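HUMAN: Please help interpret these tokens:
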Amino acid sequence: MRIGVFTPLLSNFPLSKVLEKLKALHIDAVELGTGNYPGDAHCKLSMLENASAFAEFQKILADHGATISALSCHGNPLHPDRTRAEHDRDVSRKTILLAEKLGVSVVVDFSGCPGDSPHAISPNWVTCPWPPDYLKVLDWQWNDIVAPYWIEHAKFATDHGVKIAIEMHPGFVVYSPETMLKLRSIAGPSVGCNLDPSHLFWQNIDPIAAIRFLKDAIFHVHAKDTQLYAANLSRAGVLDTKPYTQERDRSWIFRTCGYGHGAEWWREFISTLRMFGYDSVLSIEHEDSLLSAEEGLTKAATFLNNIVIRDQPGSAWWA
């Protein structure tokens, strides 16, 4: 197991500077955004058509001894706005092509969320089965929009030797282990998950139990925590739509690793991942509104490096 970093939190710095900062934290694995929600500060899709830029990018990685755990293009390829959907689909396809060219095996994405009909202009995330209108919407979404796109897109990924790791995120049709495996049953084994425990905690889904359910469908892992506030939960419930910056009033907020759950929980999480065959990168994602990017990254790296034993050439495993 290795610690990595999802680099949008350092988007104000060039890639070379980012890699220097991470090396000082004993981190040499990066997850790079290529567009859509994460942006493309450190990895441009234009490299597909620019040989010199591609060579320079590879040289920067090699000079710093860095590897890429995944390319990430989280978007909404099912958006009812056709222009928006096609943009996000194009970014995803090109990200798969760039991953193939770089020898990166995993691309991280969202499942997307359609509207409630062919005439919709905004996504509609269904959260309950009644009134019965909602189940009709859900059936239409999965049968008419989700399945056709993901069957085709999964085949595209397979044809290029790339796996797609869907981040289970509320607001999209895949937000839980059950919906993740539903999509996988439709699209095939090239579609799995990017397991981010922070999005499961507040839904009252145990991320460790989720590992046992997902098994070999786990392609990539984010290291991000969540803190729940019982007093606010009693008033607002978990479907809290207040802005993330209203920390005092929210039922939950994202936290740096160790600030929502302690070392004992993270040890069990990591051990269970290994038990079920995942022994790759834990990619730190910083969205803690109470800590700066620098502070959150440093604290998360220190916390996780104290849990995960890093293999050092020539050293014994117990050193």
Notes: The mean pLDDT is 96.
